[in-house]
Design a protein that fits this description.
The structure holds 2 protein chains of 2 kinds. Chain A is an alpha+beta fold. Chain A has 5 helices and 12 strands. Chain A folds into 2 domains: 31 residues; 209 residues, Rod shape-determining protein MreC, domain 1 (Thrombin, subunit H), CATH 2.40.10.340. In chain A, β1 and β2 form a beta hairpin. The radius of gyration of chain A is 26 Å and the shape is elongated. Chain A starts with a helix and ends with a helix. In chain A, 30% of the residues are buried. The two termini of chain B are 24 Å apart. By secondary structure, chain B is mainly alpha-helical. The longest helix of chain B has 29 residues. The chains are: A alpha+beta, B mainly alpha.
Chain lengths: 293, 169
């Protein structure tokens, strides 16, 4: 008795399945467009979806990136062995120069402490720092950003500065619990207030997906020479002034560009620094911790 | 009699293998190896895998999986959500609609089909990313990635054929 009923159900289900099959594809295409529009509208929901997905898969990527880092180390060791002798000589010279600088720095630090005491300067709040491994790098085809394997649980906040030992790499754009997305300063949508270190002339550093971001809104009288250091200006309050960013590139007649200090091809570990500044980016952050309670 | 557990597991493994290959290639494309230029050509593998399975085993690479894999790629790579899903759906659409022209035909014809699909998907993602990101995305990198995908097709196809014969049947 079961057999005819089963067959009938199957006969009824077949056209239904065909119907579903025919409409799944266009519906999914529409779904993709809907995601894009919702994402463009900057809905918090979309950002949360992205962060949740990244959180879920970050441990796998983190697990995979450790052997990958070892592969990279082996390649790097090979490279280093080849130029060991030259590098040694270079390092000895640099060491000597740095020792002289150390004397100068010690003296200046003492002087600074004394002057601060004299002028009763209110000290800036101490910055907190989290080191994190870069777990995913999409190669900058459409966006220049990396995923790091630490998030809100490690004390990272939206808008925090992301640095390497060389200089500023970018800022935290999207935050998950165990992962965070860092918008690199070369990205199309990255804007960082900077200044020429020697002359304090202000400008805006604007990424355009190339290796060398542009310097915008530099005053017409300012002509920084190629090789001059560019640092953050602290305007807008998201970063403190003086973080090293890069040097002015030799541009010729084209727009003024800078060569960042950070080698974006070899981002392995970064330091995420919370300078405890109430910048515009920080203020728009949703208080995640409070929400959950 | 119900099939033994090991048999069922075997069956499941077979069914999930195509999606798993895309996922593994996706992860490998994102892990930072510190080799300059590698992240630029690495994503080629996922596009090729989606196309390959859509041509040879469309039953194991349904549109919903394709959409989901694109979503994961976007979420991890930081591209605007939906762009990767649409690119994968375009690849899937070209592959499935032209299946009869590809299956059992010379390799060069399939390669040509992949080239058409990858170019269409690449152009759509570039145009949409430019609109969503609110600026002209320099086309050099997307173009280079598209050409790399076409050039690397034989290498990835060789691996996928092995997986196809060895695991999926």
């Amino acid at each position: 008795m079961r057999e005819p009923g089963y067959r009938m159900a199957k006969r009824l289900a077949l056209p239904l399945r065909g119907f579903a099959h025919r409409f799944v594809y266009p519906l999914l295409v529409l779904g993709a467009f809907a995601l894009m529009i919702l994402g463009k509208a900057d809905l918090l929901l979309i950002e949360r979806m992205r962060a949740t997905m990244a959180d879920a898969l970050a441990p796998i990527l983190s697990f995979m990136s450790e052997p990958a880092a070892r592969v990279a180390d082996v390649i790097e060791t090979g490279r280093e062995l080849i130029r060991l002798k030259d590098e040694n000589a270079q390092l000895r010279q640099e060491n000597e120069r740095l020792r002289q600088w150390q004397v100068v720095a010690n003296r200046l630090e003492q002087e600074n402490v004394q002057l601060r005491d004299l002028s009763r300067l209110i000290a800036e709040p101490p910055a907190t720092m989290v080191s994190a491994r870069v777990v995913a790098d999409a190669g900058g085809i459409f966006v220049h950003s990396v995923l790091i394997g630490a998030g809100a649980k490690a004390g990272i906040g939206k808008g925090n500065a992301v640095m390497t030992s060389e200089g500023l790499a970018g800022r935290v754009a999207t935050l998950g619990d165990r992962s965070a997305r860092v918008l690199l300063l070369t990205d199309l949508n990255s804007r960082i207030p900077v200044m020429v270190e020697s002359t304090r002339e202000r400008a805006m550093l604007a990424g355009d997906n190339s290796h060398q971001p542009r310097l915008l809104y530099l005053s017409s009288t300012a002509h920084p020479n190629p090789g001059e250091r560019i640092v953050t200006s602290g305007d807008g309050g998201s970063f403190p002034p003086g973080l090293p960013v890069g040097v002015v590139a030799d541009a010729g007649d084209g727009p003024m560009r800078i060569v960042p200090f950070v080698d974006f091809n070899r981002l392995e570990f970064v330091r995420v620094i919370d300078f405890k500044l109430e910048g515009p980016v920080v203020q728009t952050e949703v208080p995640r911790g409070r929400e959950r309670r | 009699m119900t099939p033994a557990l090991s048999e069922r597991m075997d069956d499941w493994g077979r069914r999930l293998a195509p999606g798993a290959t895309v996922l593994v290639l996706l992860f490998f494309g994102l892990v930072p190896f510190g080799v300059p230029g590698l992240p630029l050509i690495a994503p080629a593998g996922t596009q090729i895998a989606v196309f390959y399975w859509a041509v040879y085993r469309p039953d194991l690479m349904p549109p919903l999986s394709v959409f989901g894999l694109g979503f994961i790629q976007d979420a991890l790579a930081g591209t605007p959500l939906g762009v990767g899903s649409l690119a994968f759906l375009i690849l899937h659409g070209v592959a499935v609609s032209q299946r009869k022209a590809f299956v059992g035909k010379p390799f060069l014809l399939v390669w040509f089909g992949l080239a058409v699909a990858v170019i269409a998907a690449g152009f759509a993602s570039w145009a949409l990313a430019s609109i969503i990101l609110g600026g002209f995305v320099p086309p050099e990198r997307p173009l280079f990635q598209t050409l790399a995908t076409i050039a690397l097709f034989p290498c990835f196809a060789w691996v996928l054929v092995r997986v196809h014969r060895g695991v999926v049947h």
